[in-house]
# Entry
Amino acid sequence: MTTARKTSRVETLVDKLSLRDRLSAEEVAALEAVLDAPKTVAPGADIVREHTRPMYSTLLISGFSARYSTLEDGSRQITEINVSGDFIDLHSLLMKQMDHGVVALSDCVIAETPHAALIDITERHPHLGRLLWLDTIIDAAIHRQWLVAMGRRSGLGHLAHLVCELYLRLQAVGQTGEMRFDLPLTQSVLGDALGLSSVHVSRLITEMKSEGLVNWSGGRIEILDWRRLCEIAEFDPTYLRLQCEPV
# Structure
């Protein structure tokens, strides 16, 4: 199969999928054809609401969003941070009703794809369908790693693991510099992802900086010691499946 020239709406998605297997020009065109017109979502707004039954899946073209669940007392647990190129609710094609919500964490640009069009892709382009299936499997792998981190890692190890993961996921879609990336998330949001208070998150960031692991200023992170950061996190990137293995 020949490698296709990417178009703007699917560029980050194609970057990510192409790490795992080569896409044909026809497959890239099929992805582009099923996307509705892009639209913007403001920070804090729901992209997908909890318990709804969407008739479409949503591609995050740019920005950061998060999957979350809320408790009766209004507290929120973030269960995955989404980056550019993620189909944030691809599993709704088969699950139908959402058991969680997806919220914009920054200014986001999204494009929706009707479920009927995705079903057509799986029938007409089975290889592409398998790649999208793999994407949902990797989402599940990310959830498993977050569960391990929440239950067994120290606070510092948990935050270090999140930094390592997000760096590699952003690198895969061309959103990093030399060991630098933007992470415009508040400490409150990070606390919802880590299951910690914002005060605890602030202390962990200070500790990471004092240990010479990172420079972290505002929404910008520079990783100073990748090897040591990975050691503290016990980070093994296998679950992200960033190698090319034909499906």
Residues 1-7 have pLDDT under 50 and may be disordered. Residues 126-152 form the longest helix (27 residues).
